[in-house]
Amino acid sequence: MKAYIYDDIPGDQRLPHDTGKYLSEEILAKLGVTYKFIPIDEQEQWKNSIDVFANERGYKNRDQITVTPAGLGESYETKIKSFFDEHLHEDEEIRYILAGSGYFDIRGAGEFHDEQWIRIGLEAGDLIVLPPGIYHRFTVDSNDTITAMRLFQDEPKWTPYSRQQDGTDNLGSRSLYLESVTKGSGVAA
Predict the structure, then answer these.
(1) What are the start-end ranges of the E strands in the chain?
(2) Closest C-alpha to 105, from 163, 47, 147, 156
(3) 102 φ/ψ angles, rounded to the nearest 5 degrees
């Protein structure tokens, strides 16, 4: 995992857009983001580690998604553009990267890089939990392939609320998120 300030230079979203201004896991934690590295191993011990993590946090369901041009066919470009629309969820977003690589961009908040994009590069073995109410977006990198396990507390759902939609800033999850960051506590992600 590598986190840094996104350069905001127009161009291919799949490129690094790396400013060289790196951020620590501690800053991500203050923004409510949980990060863990659970290496993928041939003996598949990672599965036990994921089970323990899921049980500790009450995640009851999971599925797997693979994003590749071959796998998504003609809908690939449309799909990665939709993932890159700035949005939030009212539930945590949990991803464990099984193969490939990509980027989650999160919006800084409060004293922690307010409104700047923070890019988080992820690859196999990286696990990230984004808190409810955080604005974010996702893209594959220039390798155009990622396979991720998605974990859910209840039935799998993925309801994005685009920042462009009226009322998104007023959702309860957004208010609670901003309050937690303002207090400097992060959120229970």
Answers:
(1) 2-6, 18-23, 34-37, 61-67, 87-88, 93-109, 112-123, 126-130, 136-140, 146-152, 161-162
(2) 163
(3) -175, -175
Buried b (16+ CB within 10 A) or exposed e, 21-45: eebeeebbebbbbbbeebeeeeeee
Task: Output the six-digit token pair for 110.
Answer: 């409060």
pLDDT tens-digit readout, 106-163: 999 988 889 999 999 999 999 999 999 999 999 999 999 999 999 998 887 778 999 9
Q: Which of 123, 159, 146 is nearest to 71 (CA)?
A: 146
What is the amino acid identity at position 79? K
Distance CA 178, CA 29 (A): 14
DSSP 8-state class, residue 38: -
Residue among 95, 93, 97, 94 nearest 39 (CA)? 97
The class (CATH top level) of 2-169 is mainly beta
What are 29-82's pLDDT values in tens digits?
999 999 999 999 999 999 999 999 999 999 999 999 999 999 999 999 999 999
Domain boundaries, the chain: 2-169
Question: Is 113 among the annotated ligand-binding positions?
Answer: no
Find out whether 87 is annotated in a ligand binding site. Answer: yes
